[in-house]
Design a protein that fits this description.
The complex is a heterodimer of chains A (171) and B (481).
Chain A lengths: L1 H21 L1 E5 L12 E7 L6 E7 L12 H7 L2 H4 L3 E3 L4 E5 L2 E11 L5 E11 L2 E9 L3 H12 L2 H12 L2
Antiparallel strand pairs in A: 1-2, 2-3, 3-8, 4-6, 5-6, 6-7, 7-8
Chain B lengths: L1 H22 L8 E3 L1 E7 L6 E9 L2 E8 L10 E2 L4 E2 L4 E5 L7 E6 L14 E5 L11 E7 L3 E6 L7 E6 L9 E2 L5 E6 L9 E6 L7 E6 L16 E6 L1 H4 L1 E6 L6 E6 H6 L6 H5 L2 E6 L8 E9 L11 E8 L14 E5 L7 E6 L15 E6 L11 E7 L3 E5 L7 E7 L8 E6 L2 E6 L3 E6 L5 E5 L5 E6 L2 H6 L5
Antiparallel strand pairs in B: 1-28, 2-33, 3-4, 4-7, 5-6, 7-8, 9-10, 10-11, 11-12, 13-14, 14-15, 15-16, 17-18, 18-19, 19-20, 21-22, 22-23, 23-24, 25-26, 26-27, 27-28, 29-30, 31-32, 32-33
The chains are: A alpha+beta (171), B mainly beta (481).
Chain lengths: 171, 481
C-alpha cells in the first residue's frame, strides 16, 4: 500500500513536472473569422506557468517555397497568424531556427498591441513540410520565452504531431 | 424480370466505365476539344513550361517560352541539340509555320527544381520601338531563376547574346515591359523589403544601360515597416503613357488585391518607399475574397457593351479580367477561376461576373494535378482583344471565352491536349505516403496577331499550337476555315 502511494506520488510529481514544462493546454474555439485558410485549432494554457496564454495552430497548404522552406524572418512575419490577433505587432529580435515533429522552420518573438490597449508578448512559429506550412502563434501577458517553451513542448506531443500531419495532408 | 435486371446492370457498368474514362487521361487517346483544333506541337524537350511570348520578328514568328526548374526525377533534361544536360531556361521556337514548329535554341536558366530554378518569365521588344535601342535588334527580357532579370539580344533567335543582368534579388516573377517607352515593371524581391515579390521600376529604353527609377509595393511591405504584411505581388500590366494606368495583381490563390495605379504619378512621384509615397499614385484598390487571388489583371478599357447601347450613360465600360491561380492538386482548395471587374468608375471598382469550367463536365477534381485557372493570354492584338479571352485551366486545358459582353462571359471552345510519355505525375499526400496521377497541366496561353493560340504545359507535355474552328471563329470575326 505504501509502495503504491509512493509510486502514485512519483507519477504525480512527474506529471506535475511535465505540466510545468508543457503547460496544461485546453482546447478552445478558433477565435478568428473565416479567411482563405481552413480553420486550425486553438488552445488556452490553464496551468503550468503559461497560464492564460493562447496558442493557435493551423496548416497552410501550398504556401511555402517547396525548395527553400522557411527562408528568413520576413517570411515568419508574413505567414504566421500574428496579424489576426492584432495588426499592430513588432518583432523584438531576430528569429531562431527550430524543429518540431521532424519539421524545420523559424520562431520569432513579438510585442503585440492588443485591441484593448494591453501589451502582450507573442511567439510566431513557421515550419515547412515540402510545399506546405504549419504555423503557430502563442501569445499572452507573460514572457515570450516561457510561452514559446510551453507551446513547443505541447506541439511535440503525439496527439498534436498526429493532428498536424493530418492537417498538412488535407485530411 | 431477369432481362430488366441485366439491362439495368449494363447501364450501371456503362455509366461507370464512362466515368472512369472521363477521369483518367491515357497515352494515345485523342485530345478533348470543342471548336478548337491542333495545328502543330513541340515537346519543348520535356521541360516544365511557364510563360510563352510570341513575337513577329521580321518575316518570322518566334515563340519564346519560359520554363520552371527541373523535377526531382530529371533536374536538368538533356538538350538533344547539344547532347548536354541543361538546367531548364528558355525555349526559342520558330513558329512561322505553326504546323511545323522548329526548335531553335534552349537557353539554360538557373539550376534548381520546380519554382526554384529555370527562367519562368519572358517579354520581347523590338529595338526599333525602344527609344534608345538598336533599331536592328530584338531584345528578350527574362527572369533567371529567382535571383536576376536578364536582357538578351535575340536578333538571331538561334544565337542569343546576353546584354544585361540585374541581380542580387530574392525572387523574381512576371514582369511587364512597355516596348514603346522602355519602362519595365520588374517583379522582384528586393533584399530589404518584407515581401517576396514587389515592383522594381526600371527604364530599359537602352537595354544595355538599365536605369533604376524606384521600388514600389503596398504600404507595410516596405523596409522598416511593422505589423501585418500585405499579400505579395504577382504581376502588373501597364496601359502605357496613353492609358496612364498600371493594374497590379497581388496574391495568387488567396486574398487577392487589384490595385489601380496612376502611371505618371508612379514614375514621377516621390520615390522614397514611405507609406505616404507608396499610397500617392494609387487610385483604387479592390480587395477580393479570401478564397481567391489576383494572378493576372488584364485591362480591357472602353469596351462597348451591346446590352447598354441604348443607355444614356455607360455604353462603354472599362473592364479588368482577373485570373486566379489554382495551387493545390486535386481540388485541395477553394475554386480558382476568372473574374470580371467593372472599373469604369475607378475609385469604386466592382466585380460583375465570373467564369469557371464546370467540374462535373470532366470530373476534373479526380483527374489528377491542379484544376482551376492560372492565367490568360496577354496579347492586345486586335484579332482577339476585347472579343475573346483564352484561359489556361490546368487539367481542363485551355478555355476560349466570348467576352464581348463581360457581364455575361460565355465559353465557346476548349482544348485539352493528350498526355504523352513525357507528361509528369502529380501527387497528393495520403495516409502513409502519397498517391500520384498523370494529367495535362495547361499552365499558360498566348495568342499571336494571326490568331493562333499557344498553350504550354507545366507537367512537361510541351507546346500545342491551336486554332479556332466552327462558331468560335465567328466570335472573333475570323473567316470560316
Amino acid at each position: 500500500m505504501l509502495m503504491a502511494v509512493i509510486a502514485l506520488g512519483a507519477v504525480s510529481s512527474l506529471r506535475a513536472a511535465e505540466t510545468q514544462r508543457a503547460g496544461d493546454w485546453r482546447e478552445i474555439a478558433w477565435p478568428f473569422p473565416r479567411d482563405g485558410w481552413p480553420m486550425g485549432r486553438a488552445f488556452r494554457c490553464v496551468a503550468g506557468g503559461c497560464d492564460g496564454a493562447e496558442l493557435y495552430v493551423r496548416a497552410k497548404r501550398g504556401f511555402c517555397n517547396c525548395e527553400t522552406g522557411v527562408a528568413d524572418d520576413d517570411e515568419v512575419d508574413r505567414v504566421t497568424d500574428i496579424d489576426l490577433i492584432s495588426p499592430r505587432f513588432r518583432a523584438i529580435a531576430p528569429g531562431t531556427a527550430v524543429s518540431v515533429a521532424a519539421m524545420h522552420g523559424r520562431v520569432r518573438h513579438y510585442d503585440l498591441d492588443m485591441p484593448d490597449g494591453a501589451r502582450h508578448a507573442a511567439a510566431g512559429l513557421a515550419l515547412s513540410r515540402h510545399c506546405d506550412l504549419l504555423v503557430a502563434v502563442a501569445q499572452g501577458a507573460g514572457e515570450a520565452t516561457a510561452v514559446q517553451r510551453a507551446a513547443l513542448v505541447f506541439l511535440d506531443t503525439e496527439e498534436m504531431k498526429g493532428w498536424m500531419a493530418a492537417a498538412l495532408d488535407g485530411r | 424480370m431477369f432481362r430488366c435486371v441485366l439491362t439495368a446492370a449494363s447501364l450501371v457498368l456503362f455509366a461507370c466505365s464512362s466515368l472512369v474514362h472521363a477521369q483518367k487521361q491515357t497515352i494515345g487517346a485523342p485530345p478533348e476539344a470543342s471548336n478548337m483544333k491542333l495545328v502543330g506541337s513541340n515537346d519543348l524537350q520535356a521541360r516544365s513550361a511557364y510563360q510563352p511570348t510570341i513575337h513577329h520578328q521580321g518575316d518570322r514568328w518566334i515563340a519564346y517560352i519560359g520554363h520552371h526548374g527541373g523535377t526531382d526525377d530529371v533536374p536538368a533534361p538533356v538538350n538533344p541539340m547539344t547532347g548536354q544536360a541543361e538546367p531548364n531556361g528558355t525555349s526559342i521556337v520558330d513558329v512561322t509555320d505553326p504546323a511545323r514548329p522548329k526548335y531553335l535554341r534552349h537557353l539554360p536558366g538557373q539550376e534548381g527544381k520546380y519554382e526554384s530554378g529555370g527562367a519562368q518569365m519572358v517579354r520581347v521588344c523590338d529595338g526599333k520601338t525602344l527609344p534608345k535601342g538598336d533599331p536592328a535588334a530584338v531584345y528578350m527580357l527574362r527572369t533567371f531563376g529567382s535571383e536576376a532579370h536578364e536582357i538578351w539580344n535575340v536578333t538571331d533567335p538561334a544565337s542569343p547574346v546576353l546584354i544585361t543582368r540585374i541581380a542580387g534579388l530574392k525572387d523574381t516573377h512576371k514582369s511587364w515591359w512597355e516596348c514603346d517607352t522602355g519602362i519595365a515593371f520588374l517583379v522582384s524581391g528586393a533584399p530589404d523589403w518584407r515581401t517576396r515579390r514587389m515592383t522594381q521600376i526600371y527604364d530599359l529604353s537602352d537595354p544595355a544601360h538599365p536605369q533604376k527609377i524606384r521600388d514600389f509595393g503596398l504600404p507595410g511591405q516596405e523596409p522598416g515597416s511593422t505589423g501585418a504584411v500585405p499579400t505579395e505581388l504577382h504581376g502588373p500590366i501597364s496601359t502605357g503613357p496613353n492609358g496612364n494606368r498600371v493594374y497590379f495583381g497581388y496574391g495568387t490563390n488567396k486574398g487577392g488585391i487589384l490595385q489601380i495605379v496612376d502611371r505618371e504619378k508612379l514614375l514621377t512621384g516621390p520615390k522614397e518607399p514611405t507609406p505616404d509615397n507608396l499610397r500617392f499614385p494609387e487610385i483604387a484598390r479592390m480587395p477580393m475574397s479570401a478564397f481567391n487571388g489576383a494572378h493576372t489583371t488584364f485591362p480591357m478599357l472602353d469596351m462597348p457593351v451591346a446590352e447598354f447601347a441604348e443607355d444614356k450613360d455607360g455604353k462603354t465600360r472599362d473592364i479588368v479580367m482577373i485570373v486566379d491561380e489554382a495551387i493545390l492538386n486535386e481540388c485541395g482548395e477553394a475554386r480558382q477561376m476568372v473574374w470580371f471587374a467593372d472599373v469604369t468608375t475607378e475609385n469604386r471598382p466592382m466585380m460583375i461576373s465570373s467564369y469557371t469550367v464546370p467540374e462535373a463536365s470532366g470530373q476534373f477534381c479526380q483527374r489528377g494535378g491542379r484544376f482551376g485557372s492560372h492565367s490568360s493570354n496577354e496579347s492586345m492584338a486586335p484579332v482577339y482583344y476585347k472579343k475573346m479571352a483564352f484561359i489556361a485551366f490546368f487539367n481542363a486545358g485551355v478555355r476560349a471565352l466570348d467576352i464581348r459582353d463581360p457581364y455575361h462571359p460565355k465559353e465557346v471552345g476548349y482544348f485539352i491536349p493528350a498526355i504523352t510519355a513525357a507528361t509528369d505525375k502529380r501527387c497528393i499526400p495520403v495516409e502513409g505516403g502519397e498517391r500520384c496521377k498523370v494529367a495535362i497541366q495547361t499552365n499558360n496561353v498566348e495568342t499571336d496577331d494571326r490568331g493562333y493560340i499557344y498553350i504550354v504545359d507545366r507537367a512537361n507535355t510541351g507546346l500545342h499550337i491551336l486554332e479556332l474552328t466552327g462558331p468560335a471563329r465567328a466570335v472573333a470575326g475570323l473567316p470560316k476555315n
